[in-house]
Fold each of these.
Amino acid sequence: MELNLKECIAGLKSNDAAACCQAAEQLLQPGEQAAPAAVPLIGACAHESDEVRELAAAALENIGPPAVADIGRLGELAGIEQADAVYWAATLLGRLGGETAAAVPNLVGALCNNSAPATNERIAWALGKIGPEAQPAFESLQKLANGDSRLARTAANALARIEGRA
């Protein structure tokens, strides 16, 4: 069966959990050809249904980097309150690396306003992937880099990449 991205994206935007699940399931295997559905998949990560959130996250695992044109919307999604959506927005921004410098302020804001350690680790990872262009995140990352937690190590690695030491 051929993937119909337009139908999948419409399904992900539906209020009907069954339609969202069906759309996310169709996007599980396509890999990079599903990249145009990245933003709607992240939106589905904020759905009220656990099943929708799980299927959307599973599809996001395999889609690779998003389109550069999606950076602005991904930056916006990094600023919402739903930790799973923020995690995936940061992940996709990190997959694009230095091209996502415009999203650094959104990522810094998310890092300062988020209490979920796994999400903050992913934000720190993404900032490290952005590299020197993520300099505005330096102070926020320094606050997290002290200690021996996984988050502290991720923040320290990000700082090294931003400074060009890694």
Amino acid sequence: MRKLVILIIVIVATILASLPLHLQGWTGAYNPWSGLIWCSDHNSCIHEVGHKLDDSAGWVSRKGDFEINVHQFVVTEITNGKPGELAIMLATYPIESNRIEVYADIFLYSDGNEMNMPLEFRQFYDWELAKTLLKKYKTK
């Protein structure tokens, strides 16, 4: 009987660990263990697809090249005297502690569209996979 209870607990824990958690107040979630996305609206789907793209590419957001590009983008925008909305958002974002969210938010800023993405960041996203995922989660 004890083995059965342990087995049931392990099975339930495994299932829960593989699902994206729907927490109250959240509009989306991505589970890196299972690769599953849960989203309730257009913007949260794009944001969560951003997380999946990041994961699929080996967590680009955690690599130095990405962080350097983010900092250079912000500095260039501010130096030019008229920083855009994205640069202002990134300038106030604690990128060192939240790189994963920065990556997904930049993808959201572009509305999941390569042509809306600043040139400095396009290289960090798999646009073919993005199209497939955005279609799957019906964001358009």
Amino acid sequence: MAPGDGISDSDQVYKAARVASKHFIAFEMADLAERAGSSISAVMFGALAGSAVLPFRREAYEATIRNAGIGVSASLRAFTAGFHAAANASGPDLLPPAKSDSPVKAPGSDNTGFEELLAQARVQFPAGAHEMLAAGLRRVVDFQDMQYGSEYLNLVGKFTCYERRDDPALVQTAAKYIAAAMAYDDVIRVADLKTRASRFARVRQEMLAAPKQIIETTEFLHPRMDEVVGTLPARLGRWLEGRQRLFRFLDRMINRGRRVRTTTIGGFVLLYVMAGMCRFRRATLRHHRETAHRDAWLKAALEAAPVNYSLAVEILQLRRLVKGYSDTHARGMSKFDRAMAAALRLHGRDDAADWVRRLRQAALADEEGTTFNQALQTIDTFLT
């Protein structure tokens, strides 16, 4: 949910997709797949053909399905449905995202203190931020525990004294991006998500599996030594990083793709045990670094808030640049750090917020970072 816009997460995703894409097509693929008795991938394949963005004739797509030799008739029905839906789609006729008025629920049945934290948030924060806080609170509690949720509310609460009645963007933005910073993707989180019962149920639903039909799930994992060290106790992790020859040797042993079948006992137990390490997460090197990085970012936003409200909001929104896992996370973090360095240099200028906003938009514009580098160079010209 975007701060202050009063619309749901799904609305915001659709809105952003329309802006970012040259040709946006959206429709209810799962329903078409169910009617055809096939999987959603066949409908998506048909949508790709119907969109006419690739220089292939429809017959070539259909031939690919026939050559696979598995569930051909049902797949062709689903393909045809997706093809016509995409070919006939237009901007105003796109299927709107479903609305959801259901309240935010506790992440698990054992989280008995979740409602108490929600009640605390309703008292402590302005009404305009309640929905965002509820979503953020659920995210961080699901990531760690109730104590982590209390820490989240304390961090967001530091911005309440700078909030404006006519512009509640600061607390809303803080609620959104502090939750994102606290619920970072690490190997523990990835293992947790891949072993949840809800994920297996979703896979079965998407595959339209019969009640007694056996489904095998294979996960592709590509761990690096950086991720392994991040799960170690902080002192041990730093010690190992300081032994570069040993570090590089271990990385050569670990840094390769692996396929783990989570529907086997061995594969499931491997990831389940890894997910159980969440109880030790606060002592890991990765958590120490994420916390230090988060606190430095919030410190910059809090220092800007009393003198330049808009700049503080933009500094908080820079967290959008940090996302994903492994290499994707490293690239995003690099852009974030460079943008933050520029934001600190811009502090004191009347147009600081505008320039930080341009940096964020430039960093999101292309993965290679060409536009972002050009924006940084422009800033350098008038700051040096």
Amino acid sequence: MTTAASTLVPAVLSLSPTSFEAWRRCRRLWRDRSALAVTPTNPAEGSAHGLYLHRLLHQVHRHGSCHDADHVRHVLAGHGADERTAAEVARHATRCPIGAHPVGHEVEWARAHRGPPVFVATCRLDAVWVHDGILDVRDYKTGQVLEHPVADDPRAWLQAWVAAREADARGLRLRIRYEHLAAEVTDDPDAWEPTPEELASIEATLVATVHAMRAEREFRGVSDDVVCGACSFRGGCDDSAVAASPAWPTPAGRAAG
């Protein structure tokens, strides 16, 4: 069935790292998650710990330093942290810049493109520091390490484009770093300092993406085993290459089905 794009795409589009990456992965996924905010049929598991760790690190830095062992122990105890979480916080402390000026944690920034086309790019950054002439943007990761450089990750492109304006306003170089905290990840990918040419290319890509979003009519799925197998909306997608029945949460006291 063909759906009119005008009923899905708002007058001023908002792009986030998640929605931008979803569009590039599968247009049906973008429609369901970002444009229509459909309830996932097969919710992904494992995200709760990552959110918990992010908030815990926020508390550690908000009230002290991750390099202060007594302070860290107090925060961890107050939030019921287990051994895994304590090890991840300790791993972070070895990567956290000593003496850096904190811009903030869970920082929300936005940057508008005045057009044509008009759109707004937004992102929530886990931590932002200033040190050594650098605006250091950190993205905490608790899952598997990337199989490609940070510079090849579409989510990092949007983060860089938004943060570049903030770096320029401060007269600083911009650095994007993915900080992997899981114990089984032995090394972080190399940090990325985007060049002016790379930032111009990202802006051109964002512009082309918004044009494509406005022109799209079909929103077909990609029918790929890997993509569909990890998709939280595959249970309601006619184009899914992986068979899946909807698995919505069942209210307490009511049998599934």
